[in-house]
Structure of Aspartate aminotransferase family protein:
Amino acid sequence: MLSNSLVELDRAHLIHPVASWRGHEQAGVRLLTSAKGATVTDTADRHLLDGFSGLWCVNAGYGHDSIVEAASRQMRELPYATGYFGLGSEPAVRLAAELAERAPGDLNHVYFTLGGSDAVDSSVRFISYYHHAKGEPQRDQFISLEHGYHGSSTVGAGLTALSAFHQGFGLPYPWQHKIPSSYPYRNSAGTDDASNIAASVAALRAKVAEIGADRVAAFYAEPIQGSGGVIVPPRGWMKAMRDTCLELGILFVADEVITGFGRTGPLFACAEDDVVPDLLTVAKGLTSGYAPMGAVFLSEHVYNTIADGAGSSAVGHGFTYSAHPVSAAVGLEVLRLYEEGGLLANGRVMGARLMEGLQSLSDHPLVGDVRGRGMLAALELVIDKERKTPLPAAAEAGRRIFERAWDCGLIIRAFAHGCIGYAPPLCCTEAEIDAIVEKTRRVLDLTLEDGDVRAAM
Ligand code: PMP
């Protein structure tokens, strides 16, 4: 009864992110009521294995009392402190220091935001301040990757390469440029890792030459492209792109909103690739979704250039909820759980098991590609493996895949172009990882029986 009326209230009043509004009104909301570990429960008391950690954010898993205690203690003691007027709070200072200590290289300065989109937006603003301070205000052109996702604020949506985020805004802005991403499965230039990397480097050089070498402000990349379909570049790709940026004199920004905090193994995926970016953005796993928070890290030279450029004037960028004490307290406890609580270590072991399990599905007639790193993975489904032909009406097929997985008690992400994404909590057990793989096989078998899929094969 209660849940029926909530569905009606949702339909009437709550706008859902990245949804067909009319489609959602028809389908109605699926309400989740509680969660523990890697399992969420809905209003019908169904238990579902969350193979996507909410929205690739609940890296620590659900139901950690110590996080709840850290948040409630902070709420009781000091629920809010502004960072304006030179004020601050203990957890925010401590979290910044703990993160700086662990971040690659000299990314020692942390600006906290509310999530990933405003972390990306903040990075764009800081880069602009940086080039003005350096006396190069004409460096106002930004390059990012096809299939990339950098948030849905207006500026971030323009860096994002997914067309659904562009409609009606004149996006991308003329100063936002794209180059092809590495995409080993579909990149015709890259038949092997070395030529794949060389193609990306050549594309970046060509784009910089086209725009004008003294006009380019920065290049943005995700270490693994998440929302574009978990696209994993070859090892060495990021290092090559970073080195090319150094050579060309442009800033390199790593967007680790998804890959950070154990998702691919370490706290920062960059570190694994021996890359120190000029700026780095994070969110999601920073607080494991228990409270909203993102951050931008600035390297010493970026920070000092902006600081010296501004002198005694204010750097005009700030949010009411920057460095929110409750989120920071959550972040500190989450960080402790990753390290002392053994979650990073468990995630590494389970990530290897997940990849092995998904690899075992590669003999399935619909599985064209299996890719991933750590607890971040995808299957790319095709109807013809040799030609790599996508599923017919892939968006509709994706919707059916999501529904079937749900009916099998599994939450996964079905991307509109026929990829299935996985990002399970790092706390998963072996049995849970195996269940994710087994349930996926069942979903694939059911998809194979679909009339339109069979007709197209
Ligand atoms: N950058 C990347 C790489 C992301 O994956 C996301 C979110 N999926 C964002 C930025 C935006 O983060 P948020 O949704 O927290 O605004």
The chain is about 40% helix and 15% strand. The chain has two domains: 31-63+342-456, 67-339. Residues 193-211 form the longest helix (19 residues). The mean pLDDT is 96.
